[in-house]
Every structure is written in structure tokens, then in C-alpha cells.
Amino acid sequence: MTYDFARDGVFIAGRWRPSGSGDTLPIEDPSSGETLGELAAASAADVDEAVAAARAASEGDWGAMPAFERGRILSRIGQAVLAEMDALAALEATDVGKPLSQARNDVVALARYLEFYGGAADKLHGETIPFQAGYTVYTLREPHGVTGHIIPWNYPMQIIGRSVVAALATGNAAVLKPAEQASLTALSFARIAAEAGLPAGALNVVPGTGAVAGAILAAHPGVDHISFTGSTAVGQAIQAAAARNAVPVTLELGGKSPQLVFDDADLDKALPFLVNAGIQNAGQTCSAGSRILVQRGVYDQVVERMAARYGDLRAGPAMADLEVGPLISAKQRVMVESYLELGRRELTVAGEGKIAAEAPAGGHYVAPTLFADVRGDHALAQEEIFGPAQVVIPFDDDAQAVAIANGTPYGLVAGIWTADGGRQMRLAKRLRAGQVFINNYGAAGGVELPFGGVGRSGHGREKGFEALYAFTTLKTVAAHHG
Ligand code: NAI
Ligand code: MG
Hints:
Blueprint: E1 10-12, E2 15-17, E3 24-29, E4 34-40, H1 44-59, H2 61-64, H3 67-83, H4 85-96, H5 100-120, E5 128-129, E6 135-143, E7 146-150, H6 156-169, E8 173-177, H7 184-195, E9 203-205, H8 210-219, E10 225-229, H9 232-245, E11 249-252, E12 258-261, H10 267-279, E13 291-295, H11 296-312, E14 314-315, H12 330-346, E15 348-352, E16 354-355, E17 369-372, H13 379-382, E18 389-395, H14 398-405, E19 413-417, H15 421-430, E20 435-438, E21 458-459, H16 466-470, E22 472-480
Parallel strand pairs: 7-8, 7-10, 8-9, 10-11, 12-13, 12-19, 13-18, 14-16, 17-18, 19-20
Antiparallel strand pairs: 1-2, 3-4, 5-6, 6-22, 11-21, 15-17
Bound molecules: 1,4-dihydronicotinamide adenine dinucleotide and magnesium ion (MG).
């Protein structure tokens, strides 16, 4: 690892400098618990300055740039990101504790967002509307102006891709507040983007705490749109802050997403997805498939086969690239362990992985755990655990499966495993979710596919073309010419 952890600061108007207050945050490697360096923690004045820099860019050269040129710059950043694949993946693996090959996937996804939105930048257009004689009416899609992006630590690069990149593609200037626990690839992205020709002020990065940098950005009267990914509680606070300025928010919150396995499912195909959806990124995934609902006819078989897979799972340091890495922090480990303890007391442990021998004692590891015979209303079937744990819940028929699947306050994604085409279509309509997967789970993260939740999972859509609509506002022009 050659990264100079103390190198960056805040990135405002194309310049790096220390935080105005001199405050810092520790950079922690969750695989070892070691402190690797210090991160600048932006002050309120830094956030003000970042918002002003974004405003100047949005009203200046960046805002005036033809869409195809914006797109060309984003495409170039995509190439530069791929060229730094190894370094970015190692940095993310170190900072997040994410197994190296999963970190590489995130780099690829970021590059795909840059390609997709780079290519889409000049393909977003308004409409003409037939109206009364003597009028010509048309719509213009215009950027909001300054967009604020408050992102979490679990998938920094992917979330930068679906949020910041889509905002830039539509001509907004962005202020990005990465998470305390994982800001390094956000800072690297700012450097790479600037080197690839993104004009000063188009992207500003203010690492720092949620309480200072995050809260001030969310409430800032100079911000025209807020995009937030993280916990439901903070999302609600951000929506309240944005309400005081009457600006739109996109909230990508958590989930308790179900996978429904029917008697006629192709289990050989389903099995790897069923487990992987729960352990990817150590279960710290908003769209984790953490509830496995299984029809009685295959219930024992599914539990047995999932349990066997769990028996092979190892949690170890990110760079060892095992199936599971550490959790992001000691705090998250305590929280996840408390769920696992509750489960061990009240539920059946069907399968359990191991913490690998090479896992350093200071790392934030938990053993991946599968619970079976769980009722849909148990806390472990209702609350987001955000760790490598899944519950298996039996059901009898379609109606019961849908009732259990829809029986949480969340609604992010859902998976259906069945060979019955009619059931696929019926259930896809009845499941309360922003994305439904039929005989797959996650669609390989496709950047083209609109994503977002209902209920406590949030609202608004990112990814795909929908993000371009979300990051623009529609103006109707009615000309009376007689
Ligand atoms: P969090 O919601 O506190 O953090 C997410 C981001 O919000 C970070 O950048 C943080 O600095 C910022 N933030 C925190 N408080 C803020 C405030 N008052 N105003 C503005 N910004 C603020 O999430 P945390 O504490 O890291 O994780 C707690 C739980 O949240 C997890 O166990 C998980 O259940 C959920 N979560 C869900 C995520 C998702 O992908 N949907 C991502 C991260 C966490
Ligand atoms: Mg870290």
C-alpha cells in the first residue's frame, strides 16, 4: 500500500487544503483495527466554501458547458478510474475492510457509471406539447444547480457513481460528504477527476463528521438537491433539514429484503445467490437479501444446503480476499453481535462460518451465521442487522409468502425463485419493493437499472436514466406567437 494517508485535506474549488478548523478524524483499517493516518474533518466554514465553489461552477463554465463535453469528461474519468484499478481496489479494501475482489467490483462499477452517464449526458431532452392554436410549448430539463451528496461507508465508489456522477452528467455542481469511516476513495476520485479535466468547483469533497459537515450540508440554504444514502434515522433528519429550504431529497435507506424460494425453483441456480446476497460486503449492503422465505416442500433441503455453505465461510482480512471481511467498526460489531446473541438465545442456528486463523485480533470480525425456522415477526426478521447473518422463514403458499415478504417497514428489493411464469408476474406486482429480481438477485448491480426504495427504505430513484430525471428539474416554456 503506497497511499500517503495524510496527503489530502478538503477539496474545494479544485484545491486541496487542511480543514479550516484543523480538526481531523482517524483513518482506520477494520481488518486490523489499526489507525493508518488522519483525515481532514471539514468545518462549517469549509462546507460554506464548498457550496459557494459549487455555485460558482454551476453558474460558470461548468454549467455553460455543452452536454456532450461534460459527457466526454466523465468518460475520460472512467478510463482514468480503470487505469488505477489496482490502487483504488487496495485502498477501498484497506479502508472499508472489503475483500479485495469485491473492492475491484466496485471500481469496475464506478467506471461503468462514468461510461453510462458520460454517454447519456447529451441524450436527455425535453418534449414539445400540443396546445392551443397560437402557442408553442416545450419543456427543458435543467440542472438543479448545487447538489449535496451524503454517502455511507459500505460502497463509497458505487454510490459516488450512481449519485455524484449522475448529478455531474446533468450539469449540476456537487458537494460530496463521504462517511467518517471510509473517505479515501472519495478523495482519490476527486483527484482523478481533476486530473482528467473536471473543472474546478464542479466537484468539491468535504470529508468530516455527520454531526458537523453532514448536518451543515443537509441544512445549507445554498444547496438545491440532497442525495443521501445511509440509515433511516439520519435520512429522516436530512429530509427534515431539506424541508426547511424546501428542496428535493433522494433517500436510499436500508432494507430487509426477502428472497422467495418456491418448491419449483431451480435450487442449483438459486443457492449461490441466496447465500451471497446475505454475506456480500459482510452483509453491510442496503439491498442485502437477508430474509430467505422458503416453501415447505423444499424447506429442509434449502436450509441444509445453505447451512453447508455457511460451514465453509471464513471471515478474514480484506487483503486475504476470503468470502467475508471484517465489519466496518467496533461499534457496528457490537451492534451485530447483539443481534447474533439474541438469535442464538431465541432461534435455531442452522449454520455457522468461522473467523479465519489469520484474522488479526484487533479486527472487527463476526462469524457468519444462518438462523432457521424463524417467524416473520421476530426482531431478526424485522430489523436490519447489517452483518453476515440471514434468517430462513418457512411458508405454505403464495399469499403467505407475499404477506411475510411485505411484512416489514422496508421495501428496497426482493427476489423470486420459481419456474412458474404466471407466479413470477403476479408476485413481481405484489411485492413492495423498488426492484424485483426473478430467478436472480441483484442483476449484477446493473448501472442501467433504476434503484431505490419505498416505505422506510426511502424514496426517489438513482441509477439508470431515472437518476438523470431526479438530478434535473423540468421547465415548461409556453410561447404565444399568434
Ligand atoms: P449513518 O446514516 O449515520 O451514516 C451515513 C452518512 O450520514 C455518513 O456520511 C454520516 O457521516 C452521515 N450523517 C450522520 N449523521 C448525520 C446528520 N445528522 N446529518 C447529516 N449527515 C449525517 O449510518 P451509520 O451510523 O454509519 O450506520 C448505522 C446503520 O445505518 C447501519 O447499521 C445500517 O443499518 C444503516 N446503514 C445503511 C446504509 C445503506 O446502504 N442504506 C449504509 C450505512 C448504514
Ligand atoms: Mg476506514
